[in-house]
Amino acid sequence: MTSFATGSTPDPSLAPTTNRAIAAIDTGRVAGLISQLLVELGEDPSREGLLGTPHRIAAWWSTFLSPGDAAPAACFAESRVSDQLVVVGGMSVWSLCEHHLLPMNLHVTAGYVPEGEMVGLSKFGRTARHFAGRLQVQERFTRQFAEHLAGVIGREDVAVAVRGTHLCMNMRGVRMEDARTTTVHTGGRFRSDPALNQQFLTLAAARWNAA
User: Fold this and answer.
1) 130 is in which domain, residue-wise?
2) Could you tell me if 89 and 210 are in contact, meaning their C-beta atoms sit under 8 angstroms apart?
3) What is the pLDDT of residue 58?
4) How many angstroms separate the Cα of 118 from the Cα of each of 25, 84, 152, 158, 199?
5) 133 lies in a domain?
6) Which of 166, 178, 184, 191 could be stapled to 104 by a disulfide with Cβ–Cβ 3.0 to 4.6 Å?
């Protein structure tokens, strides 16, 4: 499945959420709930192979749902890069489908057109991890990443393409193991300039094909 979105007025519901509530996760209570789930599934949480499993799962949930903030971007003045297309790819993050609580692997490619300054490359990876570390849907993740990047550069001249592998489709339901979902969000010049948009999409597809 492929979906496209163009730049628009930011939706307040898509704004980054804080981790205050997540930081208050009671891992002991979560471990107890996992033990109850194992019992309901016909398992014995006290048997050798499952000893410690509820606590390991609870610790993982706490860590995964507390990825940290998207750190402030380091921007570097550089007049000679103006009007270049900058594309950052090869970013692979794991998130969780909020409909079935199953993992999805998201391969992210982001592009922007700088004007007098460059965005530090590590910012892209940190942003991807930040928005992936929660219950998500790929479409929302793509837009959140794009709107955050637009806020960093102060313009809508950004494009984000995400190719996802969803275990909720691969291992349940129709069980299509080779199914992939592609989402694209474009704004500013990427929306108004077909040549620039096509150049970005070509580079993104080439990166995915090489993976």
Assistant:
1) 75-206
2) no
3) 96
4) 38, 10, 10, 13, 19
5) yes
6) 166
Residue 119 token pair: 């965005």
For residue 89, the domain's CATH number is: 3.30.1130.10
Which residue is listed with tokens 């471990």?
A: 31
Per DSSP, the chain holds a count of helices (H) and strands (E) of 8, 8
Q: How many CA atoms does the CB half-sphere of 204 hold within 13 Å?
A: 24
Does 156 reside within a domain? yes
* Total domains, the chain: 2
Give the per-residue pLDDT at 207: 84
pTM: 0.85
Whether 1 is in a domain gets the answer no
Q: Which residues of the chain have pLDDT under 70?
A: 1-23, 70-71, 211
Task: Give the HSE-up count for residue 137: Cα atoms under 13 Å, Cβ half-sphere.
Answer: 5
Return the pLDDT at 82.
78
CA count, 13 A, side-chain hemisphere, 5: 23
Whether residues 133 and 60 share a domain: the answer is: no
Nearest to 59 by CA among 29, 92, 15, 102: 29
